[in-house]
Amino acid sequence: MTAPLEVLILGWSLTFAQLLVGLAMACAACRILVGPRAQDRILGLDTFYVNAMLLLLTIGIRSGTTLYFEAALAIGLLGFSGTVALAKFLMRGEVIE
Predict the structure, then answer these.
(1) Most buried one in 35, 50, 62, 97, CB count within 10 A?
(2) Cβ(27)–Cβ(45) below 8 Å
(3) Residue 5 buriedness (CB in 10 A; 0-12 / 13-18 / 19+)
(4) Is residue 41 domain-resident?
(5) d(CA 36, CA 34)
(6) DSSP the chain
(7) Separation CA 77–CA 97 (nearest Å)
(8) 96: in domain
């Protein structure tokens, strides 16, 4: 029995998306390691966690489990607060006033 065309297209699309998100994560990791300034490294870290969240979402779509979506939500919340804290540290030199 063969799979319907829609299932095949979805599978190939998810595989292609995961490959491109993996490539974007590699570029962000390069920016984290090489970035000449701290602002570049924070931007690379921000891009890295967004890409990790997107990778988890594509894995969740492929597997059909909600666990990956909850993990992506946690990464999004913690990544955003971490980026805000690092940006505040760079601006003022302290996080908590």
Answers:
(1) 50
(2) no
(3) exposed
(4) yes
(5) 6
(6) -PPPHHHHHHHHHHHHHHHHHHHHHHHHHHHHHH-SSHHHHHHHHHHHHHHHHHHHHHHHHHH--SHHHHHHHHHHHHHHHHHHHHHHHHHHS-S--
(7) 22
(8) no
Q: Is 23 a domain residue?
A: yes
**For residue 74, is it within any domain?**
yes
Each residue of 23-76: pLDDT tens digit? 999 999 999 999 899 899 999 999 999 999 999 999 999 999 999 999 999 999
Using CA atoms, how far residue 35 sits from 30, 65, 71, 79, in Å, is: 8, 36, 28, 19
Q: What is the tally of structural domains in the chain? A: 1
How is residue 46 written in tokens?
């921000």
Q: Range of 82's domain? A: 16-90
